[in-house]
Amino acid sequence: MVNVGIVGIGLVGSELVSQILKSSYKNVFKVVGLTTSQKMLVSDAQYTSLSIDQEANLRSTVNATGVQTDLAQFADYLSKSNEHSVIIDCTASEQVANLYPTWLRSGLSVVTPNKKAFSSSLDLFKEIQDLAVNTSQTKKGRSPLIYHETTVGAGLPVLSTLVDFVRTGDEIVKIEGIFSGTLSYLFNNFSTLTSTAAPKPFSETVRVAKDLGYTEPDPRDDLNGMDVARKVTICGRLAGLELDLSTLPVENIVPEALQSIESTDEFMAKLPEYDDHFAKLNAEALKENQVLRYVGMVDVQGGQSGVKLAKYPATHPFASLQGSDNIIKFTTKYFPNGVIIQGAGAGAAVTAYGIFTDLLKIQERVEGF
Amino acid sequence: MVNVGIVGIGLVGSELVSQILKSSYKNVFKVVGLTTSQKMLVSDAQYTSLSIDQEANLRSTVNATGVQTDLAQFADYLSKSNEHSVIIDCTASEQVANLYPTWLRSGLSVVTPNKKAFSSSLDLFKEIQDLAVNTSQTKKGRSPLIYHETTVGAGLPVLSTLVDFVRTGDEIVKIEGIFSGTLSYLFNNFSTLTSTAAPKPFSETVRVAKDLGYTEPDPRDDLNGMDVARKVTICGRLAGLELDLSTLPVENIVPEALQSIESTDEFMAKLPEYDDHFAKLNAEALKENQVLRYVGMVDVQGGQSGVKLAKYPATHPFASLQGSDNIIKFTTKYFPNGVIIQGAGAGAAVTAYGIFTDLLKIQERVEGF
């Protein structure tokens, strides 16, 4: 059995608990700790599974019945078990990510969809790689382990495939992909060769995506490319490059004059002034039988890693992408024509699913069966 | 450290040895046994790695310096080690596959690209599932394990993804794919909407594929759909269905009159008589802006599993497939719009790579690091 403590009980954390409890592994993974930013619940000295009412709102329950959150105490409780314990960080907090080295040193394994520890400071990334048994070249033994499949492409098997290439000695030439569900949706709708209707204005496409809840509250947080840049940084680092957000070339497609406006409403009101700019780019692409796609690229051998708006011909798999799917293409020595992985790269169900697959890997390694 | 014994030293077996020796795991996996159908080489009582000259032809070396092959003795040698041992079956032999239960019972893990054990007798499949720790619901402990990622889509992460869906409690609705590199090549070339030239006769497409070495020596062994049927059977069984080759609906696209002809040359000579038949099917599809693709389907809920020639619209990912790529689409509860995995599904390098990733899983589970 493996103890599980979850930091952050939002949509993903709640869905994960629900998936575990409904699965055949409900007696293998014991959920013994839950925290929100305010309150936390931990179980008893025997690490009995918390009794969880699946119908109730988990977050409200923890906030109503928990004690004040103290992450040091939370980690201490988990690390004192004789059984292996995993701490799952379901926040997006840099502050929480900074705690991973301490957690790993105390023997706790870490699983997380939080991109910060793997895309911010290179020193933090290296310290974590050095501490975790499954990423270190030198450490041997049964614990601790770190998995973060869901930091890129949510539940899609992107990072596990990338790590397999690296470990078997395959040589990665290039990783290219549409890493953002939001930007996938925007350009799949804005730039298409199959539709006979004239493209809608770009600002209208953004407006619709915002209304559907596909964008961040301020769509500039998608359009600035930083989310994609973090994912590219993670892929690049796992492929052996020392990529850094501060030096990675990232094309911010928010018009420059709108980047510093404070209010989201004002940004949305002024975006239509730039529709001609986007329409022109689109028309140029379509004229060449190409479409616009916002892509991230890890160029292992050529050193041209970055994030940008690019054109793809009709026959390219990126051109026929639909909905808000992610698509990632690896080009390697063994796979010169590429391996493509495509599917939903965001959402609570698929993110929780991806975390669950990481938990299964840890359980296999610590228990062997 | 993990001992490795390889049964069958063809292109895949030789490539695997080469990949291991070139990787950073060359001191983790000790190649201590090699067999061809005639001769075998095993190492000493200390399970020292065989000294292998990477420049030499491995198969010739074993045949020149080995003793007469005795698989019982070979397995016995491997199972007597204090370290964990894996036997890798790189043959396509049903007779060798029938030995897996004996091997598993003696504590040997098994890795193989041989489809027979997982697509022939349902009893054999169940016996193996029951014996292997990683597939059994009841067994606990550190050994034995069985992995066969490369039986479907070679090195593509198809079966590992499928197994993750099953284990996490995701519900698989449908698995649909182009599982044969040969049939992928044939129809990607014969049936296309992007080419402006008139389609070449089907028989000519087959002739070219045969000359390029893309087909079996007798192309009817591809066109009869049995290779695809075996892969569909494997996927279906892992998804929980009791599929059986004898009852699975399989569309044999070899014209009936040519199925019983003995000589391959005569078959190839007579195939052009049926070009009109294939041209008509293709024209009908293209008229509807669709293309022909030979697909396998596991329909978990609808019970319509089978193998057939089907039509796909231009916007479908199967329609824009190129070369001899495999493409597999999973539709599940968590991924209602599907997860797609695409890439080379045949060839020595990618098959050896896939076997290597299976070996890494075994090493992680038995050693924990």
Automatic annotation (TrEMBL), chains A, B:
Span of domain Aspartate/homoserine dehydrogenase NAD-binding: 8-134
Cofactor(s) required, per the database record: a metal cation
Any one Gene Ontology molecular-function term assigned to this protein's record: homoserine dehydrogenase activity
Keyword terms of this UniProt record: Amino-acid biosynthesis, Methionine biosynthesis, NADP, Oxidoreductase, Threonine biosynthesis
Residue stretches making up the Homoserine dehydrogenase catalytic domain: 157-360
EC number: 1.1.1.3
Pathway terms, separated by semicolons: Amino-acid biosynthesis; L-methionine biosynthesis via de novo pathway; L-homoserine from L-aspartate: step 3/3; Amino-acid biosynthesis; L-threonine biosynthesis; L-threonine from L-aspartate: step 3/5
List of residues binding L-homoserine: 216
Residues binding NADP(+), per UniProt: 8-13
Record's catalysed reaction(s): L-homoserine + NADP(+) = L-aspartate 4-semialdehyde + NADPH + H(+)
Binding site for NADPH: 91, 115
Catalytic residue positions: 231 (proton donor)
Membrane-spanning residues: none
Gene Ontology biological process terms in this record: homoserine biosynthetic process; methionine biosynthetic process; threonine biosynthetic process
UniProt superkingdom: Eukaryota
Family per record: Belongs to the homoserine dehydrogenase family.
Protein task: Catalyzes the conversion of L-aspartate-beta-semialdehyde (L-Asa) to L-homoserine (L-Hse), the third step in the biosynthesis of amino acids that derive from aspartate (the aspartate family of amino acids), including methioinine and threonine, the latter of which is a precursor to isoleucine; production of homoserine leads to a branch-point in the pathway as it can either be O-phosphorylated for processing to threonine, or O-acylated for processing to methionine.
Protein name as annotated: Homoserine dehydrogenase
Source organism per UniProt: Mucor circinelloides f. circinelloides (strain 1006PhL)
